[in-house]
Design goal:
The protein is α+β, with helices and mostly antiparallel strands. It is built from six helices and six strands; from the N terminus they run βαββαααβββαα. The longest helix is centred in the middle third of the chain and has 17 residues.
């Protein structure tokens, strides 16, 4: 068995920014940041280890480079704000999805999906989350953006 040369540690700056305890993965020897969950941090040490080990097993193709400072996160947030202000269709879709306790995602046979507020057969029940924001963006054809669905979700919750 090989020895781990990385460790999940508490991130004071991400915890302060996210207003909850957040953890990142660092290299034990150099102190280099190895994984920050795309700048959002993990909500527990166990989740940080689990996600990082998954990324190690499946290669670096699954790993996005970790942002090194708050400016990277801020740029992504600003890109999300600019997009949100320019796209009334997304504003309305997010307001509609957030207004209901649950949304339902029905997956079609061809791999597509439909998001609804109505209970449907063959559905996946979701609360308003970054995953729902991601599906809404995909449903409207916005897939190659400068920001993550997490940034847009966070923006919407703050400024809605």
């Amino acid at each position: 068995m090989t020895e781990k040369n990385y460790e999940a540690v508490y991130s004071a700056s991400l915890s302060r920014e996210m207003e909850a305890d957040r953890y990142i993965v660092i290299d034990n020897e150099s102190g280099e940041i190895l994984d920050t969950a795309s700048g959002w941090g993990y909500d527990s040490k166990d989740n940080a280890y689990r996600a990082f080990e998954y990324k190690l097993r499946h290669g670096e193709k699954d790993m996005r480079p970790a942002p090194t400072d708050e400016e990277t996160t801020r740029k992504e947030y600003e890109a999300a704000r600019e997009f949100y202000n320019k796209h009334r269709d997304i504003q309305e879709a997010l307001v509609n999805a957030d207004a209901f306790d649950d949304t339902y995602t029905k997956y079609d046979e061809d791999g597509g999906f439909t998001i609804s507020i109505h209970d449907m057969t063959n559905k996946k029940r979701d609360r308003f989350s970054p995953e729902v924001v991601d599906r809404i963006l995909a449903e409207y054809g916005y897939t190659d953006l400068e920001f993550s669905p997490y940034a847009l979700h966070r923006l919407f919750l703050k400024e809605g």
